[in-house]
Amino acid sequence: MFSSRLFVPLCLLALGAQSSSTNSTNISSIVPLRATAYGSIFDATVTFGDQTFQLLLDTGSADTWVLGDGWRCLPPHASPDSNDTLPQANCTYGHPYYHTSSTLTPVEDWWLGVQYGDGSVYGTVGREDITLGNIRISQQTIGVVNISAMSGNDGVNVGILGIGYPIISMIHPISYPKNETLLANTVRYPSIFEGLIRAGMAPFVSLALERTRLDAEFGFGGRLGLGEMLPVSHGPFITMPVEITEAIPEELTNGVRQISEWTTTVQSASWANNSTYRAPFQVVVDIGNPINILPYDLADAVNGAFVPSASTTEFDDVGGPAVSCNATAPNFSLTIANHTFTIDSRDMIRRHASGACYSTVASAPPPGDGLTLMFLGDAFLKNVVVVFDMGRNEMQFAQRRISSTTASTASPPSSTGPGQYSSIAYTGSAGRLRPFWL
User: Which pLDDT tens digit goes with each residue over 20-69?
Assistant: First the structure.
């Protein structure tokens, strides 16, 4: 949810629970999600001490943070020492905001500075008692943001719940200047995924997103299973190892080739009348991204198969090309781990806040002398149940079995949480979160 660009020169790189269960060894819980921004953002209810907030769920980052009282809104990508303060409403978050509680233990030697695709956030670091679902984590390391040089995009969430691999976290030692690159000099600390495991959760989460109507700005977004499989109808699970993301240089992973993202390989793609793309490519599986970002020649071919065809240029800052809201999308499927997964035609077109529509098949830049990554975002994830298994470094996909009429517009009572809508209407892009290096 994000900036439209996926390419940077290498020289620039330096939820309230519905159910809970316990067995003899592990605890588990199911967290309902709220879909916002026309089904492009998914928020979960998280409690910090005795204060409860809506946070954007993200598998492409590892830091968990919340806006603190008195935070400053700056223009996107502004330096943290900028004096160009904007009204908080311009950053399109929701509210309320976190105020220091009796259970917060400040960590004076660290500070939070996270870079996303459309800006950055800065703040203090502390250890706070966190509750997600019915699982309580004692003294989890979190960030309290006091400067946001990016937007929340949906007028509901006030932070991010990052459940990516810990190597991509961006907390820094206090001695590191805030105006230096946020990609360097990071501190390794236990992420919230690791905190959940420490609290007794089996080392995996499962995810099943729900589809909302094209014209529904808000709705029930699905469920996140914490150490628990979700009770939804699906086909057999296909297991694949999480791969080292080959495009990410070792400078960003402590000089060691290691897993940094939830990455797998698409072996081939098929669309329309038996057209096939047979060149394998790696993809990052990212709930923080509403669209699928694919090799440019594949994306151009699929977008050309819409009737009428999608535009050849990006729509606004979304990243996907403009397309008629009444267009007919082509059949589209991806083969992963020797199994074909079909993407429902309803997930090929999304509505923008302006009322126009865009294709959820976006083009990554052609290969060059920089970093180019591909993604499977929400447009894919609405069609599968996914298991993110950090204990085994595996993912599992299972094709959803959903009625052709299924499209949720109402949230279950427990998923609405305490978050309140912003005083200004949602006007941002379809989404925001690129991985940290973009």
Answer: 444 446 899 999 999 999 999 999 999 999 999 999 999 999 999 999 99
For residue 435, pLDDT over 70 is answered with no
List alpha helices for 335-384, DSSP H. Answer: 378-381
Q: What is the 8-class DSSP label of residue 227? A: S
pTM of the model: 0.88
Residue with tokens 């940094």: 260
The CATH number corresponding to 230-408 among 3.90.1640.10, 2.40.110.10, 3.30.70.120, 2.40.70.10 equals: 2.40.70.10
Spatial separation of the C-alpha atoms in residues 223 and 408, rounded to whole Å: 13
The confidence band for 185, taking pLDDT boundaries of 50, 70 and 90, is confident
Give the 3-state secondary structure of residue 10: helix
- Residue 411 above 90 pLDDT? no
Question: What is the residue extent of each domain of the chain?
Answer: 7-209, 230-408
Strands 41-48 and 51-58: antiparallel
Angle at 64 between CA 58 and CA 68, to 5 degrees: 125
In sign, the C-alpha dihedral spanning 29, 187, 4, 416 is: positive
Same fold, 7-209 and 230-408: yes
CATH no. for 7-209? 2.40.70.10
Contact predicate 154/428, CB 8 Å = yes
- pLDDT of 234 over the 80 cut: yes
Stretch (H or E) spanning 138:
strand 135-149
Distances (CA, A) of 307 to 35, 354, 379: 28, 22, 19
C-alpha to C-alpha distance for 436 and 190, rounded to whole angstroms: 18
Per-residue exposure over 17-32, b if at least 16 CB sit within 10 Å of its own CB, e if not: bbbeeeeeebbbbbbb
